[in-house]
Amino acid sequence: MNDVKQRVLVTGGTGYLAGWCIAMLLEQGYRVRTTVRSAAREQAVRDGVSTIVDPGDRLEFAVADLTADAGWGGAVAGCEHVLHVASPLGDENPRDADRLIAPARDGALRVLRAATAAGVRRVVMTSAANAASPASYTADGCTDETLWTLDHPSLPAYRRSKTLAERAAWDFMAGHAGPTTLATVLPGAVFGPLLSTANLGSVRIVQRLLQGRMPGVPRIGLEVVDVRDVADLHLRAMIAPAAAGERFLGTGEFMWMREIAAALRAGLGDAGTGVPTRQLPDVAVRLAAVVDRSLRPIMPGLGRRNRHSTEKARRILGWQPRPAADVVVDCARSLLEHKIV
Predict the structure, then answer these.
(1) Where are the strands (E) in the chain, listed by range?
(2) What is the pTM of this model?
(3) CATH 3.40.50.720 describes domain 7-334
(4) Which of 59, 100, 138, 279 has its CB 3.0 to 4.6 Å from that of 55, i.e. a possible disulfide?
(5) What digits encode the pLDDT tens for the residues 190-240?
(6) Closest C-alpha to 144, from 309, 340, 323
(7) Using alpha carbons only, what angle is made at residue 101 by residues 76 and 143, rounded to the nearest 5 degrees?
């Protein structure tokens, strides 16, 4: 292992992506401090990271919450870099969108105020690919980081929260004249192995397919990317001089849900026999969404093939994601190993 490097703050240590960021930083010789909302969560983070690397005395914790100012000054103290990965917890499609938007936007600003006051060199903030998407997708459209999603009340609350939080971050940095620089990472649908079962996030999609409780799959497409590759992109954006002031899309190959289901069946053998592969008619999905609010966030993407270019991340940062079929199978195997299917 390399000599111990600088200290990096990773926000939201109990999160799916944050755990992998912590593990990879430790593997590369960094000291890591991570925020948790309660000290009672510290051992769960340490246990998850320990499945990949022995954190020893290089992993420490700070109690801080995105919804409050307390603790952020101490969290960033002595850190060279910040990976702002945390997102506020809660319903991804609340009736009042501001319940998701305000904590995401205000939380990002809390982190940036603390980081710039402390003279942190680089903040890398996790946004989302749907913050760089057109409101109306086209069949063969492909967008890049130059596009900003135009906010509108008709958009899902989660998509609005990511867009508005990232926009607020860039607006804040435009008025900052200090040494701190910002880069943002915009991932697609994040799957891959689990470090713990505390926060499944988007992995629940694969979990539901494995449980075989669905009568079929909707005509929804996802740009599948591995959580390890997204963590790697954060680390690359953290240290590359050319990443300062840049957005980086971190999406993978586009797969229809039916293709994801077929990959699971082909890659898992007997464990995948219950995965549904029948295509549900769009009208049936729309009718189901009338009574099932959890389906409503996917409605804008029904039948649409929206894609993003990752040429910038490949060219500037040398980033290369794994094949999407391998990602979903690795994710499923991890779910099975953790016995949560």
Answers:
(1) 7-10, 31-36, 59-63, 81-84, 122-126, 142-143, 181-187, 189-191, 221-226, 247-250, 253-256, 307-308
(2) 0.93
(3) yes
(4) 59
(5) 999 999 888 788 898 899 899 987 789 999 899 999 999 999 999 999 999
(6) 309
(7) 95
